[in-house]
Design brief:
Blueprint (H helix, E strand, L loop, with lengths): L2 H6 L3 H9 L5 H19 L2 E4 L3 H13 L11 E5 L26 H8 L3 E6 L11 E2 L3 E2 L1 E2 L2 E5 L5 H8 L5 E6 L5 H7 L2 E4 L19 E6 L5 H8 L17 H6 L8 E4 L10 H16 L3 E4 L7 H17 L11 H12 L2 H24 L2 E5 L15 E2 L2 E2 L8 H7 L5 E8 L5 E8 L4 H14 L9
Helix pairs in contact: 3-4, 6-7, 11-12, 11-13
Length: about 475
């Protein structure tokens, strides 16, 4: 590995220190990341469009350092933006042939906040069409493959972000998470993905302003970088009516304090969805839990059954799809089968199903409230299957248990989306195939600080190397 490859794989914190000390320039860092793009992208197809202003942005960031200006918290750090997130002046297709030539005239709010923090937008990362699908594929750019084994999927829908992050193309990946779109690819690619509380990072523009199911969030290589990203992105916006619901915190200062492990109580449940768990994945997660126990943590294994939420999520997802795409129904026949099928489901479902779904969602919230009366966190495998062939839309069975729908296999993540709690997926080891395994930490309401602190402990206890070229 060359010096510049090593630089491109450093954490955000390490890069910030080098940039501030002028031991590394933003131009050098961007060129190092471009070297990783050249090295990896033909194999994994993570980055689909480069920023047209990339080197000029890097030179301006370098000049600001030389002028000794007050720098943003992410000054000079290269980032990847998900293909469903608008970036001014950069082709943004949403992974759909309908929008294959679309170039936004305005940044999404999250992009403008990244710019305000001094980050450099490297380009757009591949995603499923309008983020509908947990295997990253669309008819514009094709499949994103897993850097650990390019025959396998990177997960989705933020698969380009995870694969590019794991290979050093950028230091932060922006994404969205409805039913696991940040956490699933993070688990498959060996990085960290945070689903924040709804409203903490405002989503704008949006066709569904009162959306509490999908959130905007980050992926990073080190959990220790998450406070810096939240410092840049969190905060209310007049464009997002739910953004005032999430309390604001000094994430960098609060996450610096170590979490007291002795006497800490955690619930662990290996199969919250009733769909089974791959034995290698459960073994890796259990080793992680046993390791925490060795550090003084009290583990309460819990037979948590949230399977009734599977139908509820399907109904709410159908409503979500319809709410977001009501203005695009004229293109329904031109959309891919995953997206079109979900919109049709929303159009055709019985309104009674929505009432039942909301009632079930309330029951699940109360279930978590009871868990958090005795435990600070719930731990469970992020994904209960290993990465599968990239040509597959979804795994058809788990341990011989046939999946009922194409999203059933991601139930462990979408069930933890329902109550609107902060959740982070962090690598906890590798399985017998040498592929990374993720464990997700579910925290009590608005406890991003807590889940980040515990994620840091797990990542330090169970280090997982980044993938390397064969």
């Amino acid at each position: 590995m060359s010096k510049w490859s090593e630089v491109a794989l450093l954490s955000v914190r390490e890069l910030r220190e080098l940039l501030k000390a002028r031991k590394l320039s933003p131009v050098e860092l961007v060129k190092a990341c471009l070297g990783q793009v050249e090295e990896w992208n033909a194999e994994v197809n993570a980055l689909v469009t480069l920023s047209t202003d990339l080197l000029s942005d890097a030179r301006e960031a370098e000049a600001a350092i030389m002028r000794q200006e007050d720098l943003g918290v992410l000054h000079g750090i290269p980032i990847g933006i998900k293909e469903v997130t608008p970036v001014r002046g950069i082709r943004t297709t949403y992974g759909s042939l309908v929008y294959k030539d679309y170039v936004p005239k305005q940044d999404a709010l999250v992009v403008s906040r990244f710019r305000r923090a001094g980050a450099i937008i490297l380009g757009k990362t591949n995603a499923s069409e309008f983020a509908a699908g947990a295997n990253t594929y669309n008819e514009v750019f094709g499949s994103t493959r897993n850097p650990w084994n390019s025959n396998l999927t990177s997960g989705g829908s933020t698969g380009g972000g995870a694969a590019g992050l794991a290979t050093g193309m950028f230091a932060i990946a922006e994404g969205t998470d409805l039913g696991g779109s940040l956490r699933i690819p993070a688990a498959f690619c060996g990085v960290v993905g945070l689903r924040p509380s709804p409203g903490l990072i405002p989503t704008s523009p949006s066709d569904y302003l009162w959306d509490t199911l999908q959130v905007t969030g980050p992926m990073v290589r080190s959990a220790d970088d998450l406070p810096l990203v939240l410092e840049a992105l969190a905060g209310p916006s007049s464009d997002c009516p739910i953004s005032g619901w999430a309390p604001q915190k000094d994430f960098v200062a609060k996450c610096t304090e170590e979490i007291p492990l002795k006497g800490l109580s955690l619930a662990y449940s290996p199969d919250i969805a009733g769909i089974g768990v791959d034995s290698d994945i459960e073994d890796s997660c259990r080793r992680c839990v046993i390791g925490l126990e060795g550090l003084g943590v009290r583990i309460n294994e819990t037979a948590l059954d949230l399977s009734e939420g599977r139908d509820a999520f399907a109904a709410l997802r159908g409503h979500w799809m319809l709410s977001h795409h009501l203005g695009r129904l004229e293109h329904l026949e031109s959309f891919g089968p995953n997206l079109a099928g979900n919109i049709r489901f929303g159009l055709e479902q019985d309104p009674k199903a929505l009432g039942e779904a909301e009632r079930t969602r309330s029951i699940i919230w109360k279930t978590f409230s009871k868990i958090f009366q005795k435990n600070q966190f719930l731990l469970t495998p992020t994904v209960v299957v290993p990465p599968f062939l990239s040509e597959q839309n979804y795994p058809e069975s788990i341990n011989g248990n046939k999946m009922e729908t194409y999203i059933d296999w991601i139930a462990p993540t979408f069930l933890t989306s329902l109550p609107g709690l902060p959740v982070v997926s962090v690598p906890c080891g590798v399985d017998a195939r040498g592929l990374p395994v993720g464990i997700q930490i579910v925290g009590s309401p608005h406890d991003e600080v807590g889940v980040i602190k515990l994620a840091k402990v797990i990542q330090n206890m169970c280090p997982v190397p980044l993938p390397s070229k064969p």
